[in-house]
């Protein structure tokens, strides 16, 4: 296609095509300039495979990235009912999750712990970490196929997410982008979230969400939840022990249960995490890279890193089952 020699090495299951690599026609081709030529291909490959990596294009600023994402025709979304700390960069662009560099963020589909989520998500590598810092991805259809049948059946009714906001988790004021209790309650009514206020401005929410979903365009079945991230087994052993002793099982910052409210054994999530590991695809970021995913067809993660790293994120095209019985 061109005389460029763009090196791209990925690690992952042989059957996965994630991500499809798309290169410029010439060195330094501006990504925005290339979009009219590439839009049809990008949209086809994102729908077919789940994601594309645009590498070798010129993306001079975060604003150029923002405009590229916005040019797909959907207003960029604000980060509402978040589960992790982020900072707004501006215009619908956010920093990636601001967890300490040494921490691993497991595979997940963005906001799959809610009943409304973005269908499209973009990542832009402004600064690639000198060591680590990859954004691993995985095919949510393949995850569902590989998941043991007994686990799929148990999760079909959904996942119950319980959150206790306060000193040990993201404050509810940050999660709901307001300090007004009435606004929080209005959001919860709309989203089908049960809430309860406690002492010292504490808040507890409970929401039943999907664990397995059907893609609205392709009709394919996907594993689509964050049960393994919210479950107490995701904590380091010493942290879990301390929190359980201090707060009790019912008051942990976050936890997940089967749809009927019964506890999910740790060994269930050990098997879930095994499947996720087997479907993980990883590649090294290069500065200027833009990764575009269908948020239902592809999950993403973050590897620990050393040194400076800056990856920004944009999301668009809300979809969900807020009004489903």
UniProtKB/TrEMBL annotation:
<dbReference type="InterPro" id="IPR050411">
    <property type="entry name" value="AlphaKG_dependent_hydroxylases"/>
</dbReference>
<protein>
    <recommendedName>
        <fullName>TauD/TfdA-like domain-containing protein</fullName>
    </recommendedName>
</protein>
<dbReference type="InterPro" id="IPR042098">
    <property type="entry name" value="TauD-like_sf"/>
</dbReference>
<keyword id="KW-0045">Antibiotic biosynthesis</keyword>
<dbReference type="Pfam" id="PF02668">
    <property type="entry name" value="TauD"/>
</dbReference>
<feature type="domain" description="TauD/TfdA-like">
    <location>
        <begin position="31"/>
        <end position="314"/>
    </location>
</feature>
<keyword id="KW-0560">Oxidoreductase</keyword>
<dbReference type="InterPro" id="IPR003819">
    <property type="entry name" value="TauD/TfdA-like"/>
</dbReference>
